[in-house]
Structure formats: structure tokens, C-alpha cells
Automatic annotation (TrEMBL):
Protein name as annotated: Aspartate aminotransferase family protein
Cofactor: pyridoxal 5'-phosphate
Cited Gene3D superfamilies: Aspartate Aminotransferase, domain 1, Type I PLP-dependent aspartate aminotransferase-like (Major domain)
Keyword Transmembrane: no
Pfam family membership, one: Aminotran_3
Pathway this chain belongs to: Amino-acid biosynthesis
Family as reported in the entry's similarity comment: Belongs to the class-III pyridoxal-phosphate-dependent aminotransferase family.
InterPro entries: AcOrn/SuccOrn_fam, Aminotrans_3, Aminotrans_3_PPA_site, Class-III_PLP-dep_AT, PyrdxlP-dep_Trfase, PyrdxlP-dep_Trfase_major, PyrdxlP-dep_Trfase_small
MF term (GO), any: identical protein binding
Protein species of origin: Methanofollis fontis
Amino acid sequence: MQPEPDYRQLDAEYVMRVFSRDLMMVRGEGARLWDDRGNEYIDCVAGIAVCSTGHAHPRVAAAIGEQAQNLIHVSNHYYIPGQAELARRLVGITGMEGGRVFFSNSGTEATEAALKLARVRSGRTRFLAFTNGFHGRTCGALSTTFKPSIRTPFLPLPYECSFADYGDLESVDEMLDGSVAAVIVESVQGEGGVVPAPAGFLSGLRRLCDDAGSLLILDEVQTGFGRTGRWFGYQHDEITPDIVTMAKGIGSGFPMGAIVAREGLEFRPGEHGGTYVGGPLACAAGNATIDIIEEILPDIRRKGDLFAEALSAYNPRHAGLMLGITVGERCGDVQRRCQENGVLVNCTNGHIRIVPPLVITDEEIEKAAEVIDEALCSVVL
């Protein structure tokens, strides 16, 4: 019998070296993961805020499995099982009565759709985004992503975009004029280190966009589907954007994204499309995910407060179950120390990012906080 090939060797030989990784995860349940060596972890990464209902939630798995036994894929030339229902529910939870949905396969694709829609309906060509903002890596989305190290190699990018200071309405007012199709903003900057928008910032953007005749796009890819304690982060400011982008938590790990655009703002036939968008399996996962989050949503803010209180010595920034702690150049060391002690966290731009599954228990929060605290004390202090 031939021995099974070593996955590390195969990966090194055949996979483009884009990702840094050292573990093979083989099983998950709730907020727990197990690697191929039997080690158990409390997962505070959740696929980067993707596994909203936890790993392998039985109701999501059952919905996908049942649908897969009937129909895995069919073209959007036909009605898709579950798609219209999911669209109705997305319009409802965004609070955008009369709005319409376009489905995608990812957050980046959702950004691409939002930018295209803003351009074609406004007749304008420029965009305004924010320092330390992140909206995706395809060339259109990258036009509105700030980080120079990932932008510069691909210049010139297809869309002209200026960057205002996040949280600074005066900076926006100086740059916003009649040539700007849309302002795109995150309600909490995730890749930027979990930085919530200051109070009144989003409502101020709404006012400035209205004055300039520009659209307001809220990027809720990381913050949507209960992550901040509301369905979407902008709902804390009680505003209504023109377009909302979403993905990650929408399908509990099944690849999916979408935009919801306000009433009267939509693509016309032939202006956009996609082979796999809003497919049967994705819609089954999305509908099951919404069912589950409806049940757990009222407790998410309390869980986030519990996590933040346990780490209060480090002045964490947080919105619901989305926490960030500034560490600096030794962030990677903290991440490794946590991993060695059974807790997975994410390091982004010198900040520890904590985005566990929304089903994480109080006991898991307390244990994870102990491990993170020990790692910060031993590595940083």
C-alpha cells in the first residue's frame, strides 16, 4: 500500500505561496476546532468572522445536505430554490423597505457590484473611501482599499478613489464634490484593527452624501449578521445607506455575498450577472443561518461585553463579538502563544482581532480571555 502523500509537501510544491499557515483543521463544532493531530482549540477567528453560527451547525449542515440531494446548481436563467425568500429576508433585516438584492459569491464581489451600480446609476466616476479601510482584493475593490502594500503593485487601478480620515467629517467634507459617485465605509474597520465608527460619524456621512448627491455604501462584510449585536453595524446609528455589501457571516461558512440597494436603485438587464451567484446551496445555507441568528441575536452584545470586560486591562475596542487590541510589532508572537495554549486569534496590522462564532459560550469566552491575557502578559508586558 502506498503511503498517503504529506499535505505539507504537496502544498509547498503545488499551491501558490499566498497564505502563511501551519495547522490542518479537520473538524469543528460550535466554537471549537480540532487539528489533524487531535489538538483542540477555542476558535476566536471563525474563518475571519465567517462561521457566524459556529462550525458545522447541524441545522445549516442539514439544510445544505437536503438541498444537495435535490439540486446543487442551476443557471440564473431559471428561478432558484430559496433565492427569492432569502432576498425578501435580507431586505427585511437591512431595514431597506422596497430595496432589491443582487447575490454574489464573496465580499469582494459584493464590493464590485456596489461600485458598478453606483457608477452606472450616478453617472459619476470617482469614489471616496477611508484610511485603513479594506473592501477587497480584486482590482475594482482594491481601488477603494487603503493599504499601500497591497495596492501599489497593481497600480493603476480601474477606479479613481480618494481617502479621507476615518471618523473625520471635516476631511470628508473637503473631498466630497459633484464628481463622487459614492462614499464607501465600514461601520467598524476590521482589517484596520477593529475600530468602530465614532458616534455620529455615519449619520454625518449620510448628511454629507445627501448634500453632494453621492451614494452612501456601507461595507458590512465583517460586521453584518449579528456580529456587532444588531443585524448590521449601521443600525446602531439608525441610518439607511443606499447600498449595503455583505458576505462572511451570511452563510455560516458557505461562500456567499450580496448587496441590498435601496428602492429605485438597481441594475438593469445585462448590466451585471454571475454563473454561481445565489445558487441553491448558498441560499439554503443563508436561510438556515438567518433562522439561527434570529434566536441568538439578543445575547450577542452581552457576550461581547463579557469578553471585553475580561480583557479590560488592555483597553480593547469592541462592538458586540468583534474585539481588537493594539499590540504592535510582537503581535505575531502573541498569536502563536495563544495557539500553543489552545486559542486561535488573528493578527492584523499589529492588532489582535477577536471574532469568535456568535454561538461561543460564556465558559469558552472566559477560558479564551485567560489564554489571551497570559499571552499578552508574557510576550508584550
